[in-house]
Specification:
This protein is an alpha/beta fold. It is built from 21 helices and twelve strands. Bound molecules: adenosine-5'-triphosphate and magnesium ion.
Length: 629
Amino acid sequence: MKNGMRNSAEVQLRTALRTLKRPLIGISAISCLGNVLMLTGPIFMMLVYNKVLSSKSIPTLAALSLLALLLYAFYGLLEGLRGKLMARVGITFDHKLAPTLFEATLKLPLHFGPHARNHDPLQDLASIRNYLMGPGPVALLDLPWMPIYFAILLLINPVLFFAAGAGALFLVILSLINEFATKGHVKAATQVHTATMTLLLDARRNSEAAAAMSMGDDLCKRWGSGYVNAISHARDLADHASVFGAISKTVRHVLQSAMLALGAYLVIEAQMSPGAMIASSVILARALTPIDLVIGNWRSTSAALQALRRLRALSSKLPKAVQQQHGMPRPHHTLSVRDVAIVPPGGSVATVSGVSFEIEAGDALGIIGPSGCGKSTLVRALVGAWPTARGEVRFDNALIGQYSPDALAESIGHLPQSIELFDGTIAENIARFRKGATAEQVIEAAKMAGVHDMILTFPLGYDTPVGEGGTTLSGGQRQRIGLARALFGNPFLVVLDEPNSNLDPLGEQSLNDAIHQMRQAGKIVVIVAHRPSAIFAANKILSVRSGRAEMFGPKEQVLAALFPRIGQPHKPSQAVSPQTGGGTPVIQPGQTVASDPAAGSSSPSVGPATATVTSLDATRAQRSNGHVS
Ligand SMILES: Nc1ncnc2c1ncn2[C@@H]1O[C@H](COP(=O)(O)OP(=O)(O)OP(=O)(O)O)[C@@H](O)[C@H]1O
Ligand SMILES: [Mg+2]
């Protein structure tokens, strides 16, 4: 068994940036050749002025023209090639990072909680890709050749060199001021845009509630204020761009004419030839072109740099590579939770702490407790969706983090409390969109969840599209298909969070049958429940209160201890054993506890807790025909 490190987003980003190096060196070489070829124009002009006009030789003119034409054609080819290569560089960079960043995007809420909306790595990747495919990087690659043109100007005449240098410096300072002035606007515009998009997506997802309660106007006002803010930043940016663009263009034209005037003066003073005057004007134009392009593309350059900075910051905040054991056998025996504390993503306070228990193959654990006590939080850690702040979750003695994601995907099935299906067919959803899933596997999961017959009643059967979030199905249908998805592939651990909240009696029957089958097959099932019928098939109970495990043990005994008869108020300290491990009171098998309410109690129900037991009893009575309990 060998250890392996999973590539983190940080490593992937570094690798992707490294892969840019070689193509960029190649493209720089092309730029070098292109810039040398661009000297064709000035040299041609100088030769025409100085040689052809003085010698009046038509054959020389024809030969020079032909040579210039060939060199220009070659230059055109190189320019085309450079553009194509840059486009491929952008796409390769995107391809290298897109899967990692998609995965990171999926996990953003799990790492950053409510702050997740501040990150949009795929959008950042798109802006870097678009930048790489545009003219910005080409202009940057041309910049290093500027000194060559200036050196030629220096050779022609030092006065021209200093004049051109001053002009170029002025343009560079202008672009730096531009960057400084617009930086804040770019950042603010991005943040406001992200916030308005989040609101829009929320509103779209909750369109039913918004329509039913006529929330449209108020939501529009809320969205509108952010939108107006985003637009005003965009307007400020456009204002800056037009002012700086106009100034730099004007300076550029002034510089061009000033150089010609200066050249003419130097020709009059007999300090250089008329050919050199024309050539220097062309060389200056060529030298300033990359500056012009860099200034013109500064917004996209700056946006791409900010996007890269954000990606770097995000990837450094994401969890580091986890050491995983490759070739680990799939878990088969136990699930142990030891002194676990869980802090919700983006939060700072543990909402679950000190929970310990161990269950083994064939067990079905019911987790009960009042609303907000931490049941869903706990099961999120059991399936590895949320990390533990303290303590550990182990399958067969190996830490959950030691299993590879593929091994966990095969070993865990989860039906979350808010069942959301993905836009696709029923079969695709049950198969978790896994490539290579067979129809037999999908049908097997559906049959186990007891939804096969229900699915066949749809005109398109398993190929029925469920719509965005599964909205074309009813709540109960969604929940039952979600159950089939959790059971797909016969996982070792199936965690069901309020699996019967939308189910009718038939659905509940199928659910309990599925749990029964899972237990028989030596799997572990964890069921979070409010309604007692959901824990009917459980054989163990963990009761949670205020984020702490209140009691854990065989179902009958825990229920009896939690809901004693009237007149025999339960005192947990008398009914349970001393705390073990992380502090969960454990009822020992055979230990005497308050009597089982199922054993013929005729207690009237008073208060919510007793009412729960009473309805549990009723359910039991209805189903007294032989389920595992
Ligand atoms: N993403 C989150 N960020 C911050 N706090 C959270 C988050 N999710 C849950 N909480 C808090 O953790 C506590 C436990 O929530 P949890 O969803 O686990 O309760 P629960 O027992 O499943 O309740 P219910 O029975 O209503 O589903 C609650 O106080 C809740 O406000
Ligand atoms: Mg919950």
